Amino acid sequence: MDSIRERTSTVSLQADLFGSSTQPAQIVELQIVGERLQIRGESFTQQIPAHQIRWPRTGDGGICLLELPDGALLHCRPDPLLRQWSEAGRTARTPWRRTLRHAGLALAAAALVWAGLPVAAESLLTQVPGQIDRHVGQRLLDRLDAQWLEPSTLPPQTQQAWRRRLTNDVAQTCPAVRLPVWNLQFRHGHGEHRSTGAIGLPGGTVVLLDEQLGRSTLQALCSELGQLQQRQGMRTLARNQPVSLLMGVAFDDFSSTVAVAWPVLAQHLPFAALTGIPAGTSGTRIARR
Length: 289
Fold this sequence. Notes:
There is one protein chain. With 289 residues, the chain is α+β, with helices and mostly antiparallel strands. The protein has a 6-stranded antiparallel beta sheet, covered by helices on one side. A 4-stranded mixed beta sheet has the order 7-8-10-9, sandwiched between helices. The protein has 12 helices and 10 strands. A hairpin with a 4-residue loop joins β3 (36-40) and β4. Helix content is 43%, strand content 17%.
């Protein structure tokens, strides 16, 4: 790792650490120390061997995602220093097994082209880490919060009571749904942007609007959770943007897949203003296609 040692300095970069779909991102500071990437947060410091990190392959305009061995993601802004670290980390000590794996996956993707790129991409979804689903889901929720939704008007204790009630009801009404983790969020719709149903986001988050809570809530929730269990949101990305997902599987860099998530999946949001479907019409959801 001499090439990384040569780059050891006091210069650091800032990043957002996504460690869990149920916890907000943490702002951390990154620095190369010897052969390791040092991550410093508000109350912790972690050092990870640089060769164990999946470094990004992205240009100046892309989103840089570093995947850590435990599945956590570091979201960084493009920076020349990050590209230097990436090159050093990839060339210093690349395990031959990973090299063979990349080559094998690339050949498999090429062999499947005859059946169509969308089919090939969807068949390789098992190679996409669950963290990518959660990152895509968080990106979509951020865009929805910024443009289409408002904070819930329900008091926190009321929201928690609904969560407990719906969690118990789901276990009794739709036991076939076996998501390891799912996260129920409440929001308030406004005007023409009110949803016509529950909104299932990749990674296990389901958004319910205050005005949706009622007799049909449980049915809508079970439907969305069933679709999330099948990773239908990621299947939509695979069918509509197969090249980005195939390249992500081949090179362990899903930056482009995350980047195209909003323009692709926004077409399937149950909002009249986005989909052109009149309010009250049964529209497709993110999780459905």
